[in-house]
Amino acid sequence: MSAAQSEALAPGPSVESVPSYLSETYSWAYLNPRNLRWLDNSLVVSSILWGNAGRLMRAAAAEFEPGQRILQAACVYGRFSEMLAHQVGNTGQLEIVDVAPIQIANVRRKLSAYPQVRSRRGDLTLPLGKRYQGVCCFFLLHEVPAEQRSRIVDNLLSAVGPGGKAVFVDYHRPSRLNPLAPLMSLVFRLLEPYATSLLDTPIDSLSPQATDFDWHRRTLFGGLYQHVVATRRSLTEFPPSRRQP
Ligand SMILES: C[S@@+](CC[C@H](N)C(=O)[O-])C[C@H]1O[C@@H](n2cnc3c(N)ncnc32)[C@H](O)[C@@H]1O
């Protein structure tokens, strides 16, 4: 491990420089170096997603094409970034943005063998200032309070170039017949305080730019998960206020 990575894995400064919703609610999951080591494991991720991690990740990665320049909005435990890196291939580019220095150090370690991957620290509630052919947001929105969630969706849509797509994979309100519904409601109440506000909120209602996109949503696993694709219509011009370099 390099000196920079060791420094970023130290707990103090990373906790102070992240949004309060993250340090107050999810410090144990994303900012604690000891927990990161066992949580960042495909078996753990698969268990948390009831065995659906592989298919959710594969379906999200399959939305993108070799050679594309895509953004992964926040780090994800397990092998998702690796899948995206394979999908864009060595003629493409994957940029990963996360607000937590410890997560950036971790993803750099995990993906050091992939020259097509860049990662940097950044807060997705702030404009990205760049455009991509694709943007992928995997299980971030349910961990963010409603106000910041809208800003993130708006910023991600702004970052999609003409003809490009934004892919959101996240929790959704399970059907009443889903036997996991009561347990998941308890999990959300105890561990995921912002998730409930996402369950009944269509992602396309979170940004005024949604009308510039064609939206397709499907739900999986008895409605517990949603896979949403927003494709920017090719002829849509960026409003002057949102025009980016
Ligand atoms: C993508 S979400 C959860 C993913 C999923 N639960 C998993 O298996 O990893 C977790 C990441 O979001 C990051 N994050 C939260 N708020 C953010 C923000 N405003 N900007 C950038 N990254 C953010 C956290 O630092 C954390 O690394």
Automatic annotation (TrEMBL):
Lineage: Bacteria, Pseudomonadati, Pseudomonadota, Betaproteobacteria, Rhodocyclales
Molecular function in Gene Ontology: methyltransferase activity
Pfam families from the UniProt entry: Methyltransf_25 (PF13649)
Keyword Protein biosynthesis in record: no
InterPro entries, A to Z: Methyltransf_25, SAM-dependent_MTases_sf
Biological processes per GO annotation: methylation
Keywords: Methyltransferase, Transferase
Domain Methyltransferase residues, every copy: 70-164
Claim: Glycoprotein is one of the keywords in the record: no
SUPFAM superfamilies: S-adenosyl-L-methionine-dependent methyltransferases
Protein name: Methyltransferase
